[in-house]
Here is the input.
Amino acid sequence: MLSATRPDVALHGVDLSPDMIAVAERDLAGSGVSLHVADVARLPFADDSVDVAVSSLALHHWPDPVAAMAELARVTRPDGVLALYDFRFTDMEPAMAALRAHPAVAADSVRRRPARRGPRLDARLHPSGAARSTDAAAR
Here is the structure.
């Protein structure tokens, strides 16, 4: 596991379901992974605190992908990476449009490409972070 080979890396898992977090706690006991019950549109992390944000097979459940993308961009550090994977039937266009429109995201980096089990959406944040809004209400 990554946490054993890279103790300098903090790993976090987030799910809206307390039941899923309970399963993860059981499966990851002693791994050093911090788990959180939280909504993707209201993550328990500080601005610019995440190097890489990954979502697997969840986007199709999000009621507001635009809010989720804004929140993922908020917590991902400048020059960080967002990688989202989901089923082939998932409409990723609203999420992609939201990322392209977000001031912290390098619009030309937002792309959808095939992954083994479904589409993958990738984006990079601007290296300087200068385009970020400092007004929390704007998020």
Q: What stands out?
A: The radius of gyration is 15 Å.
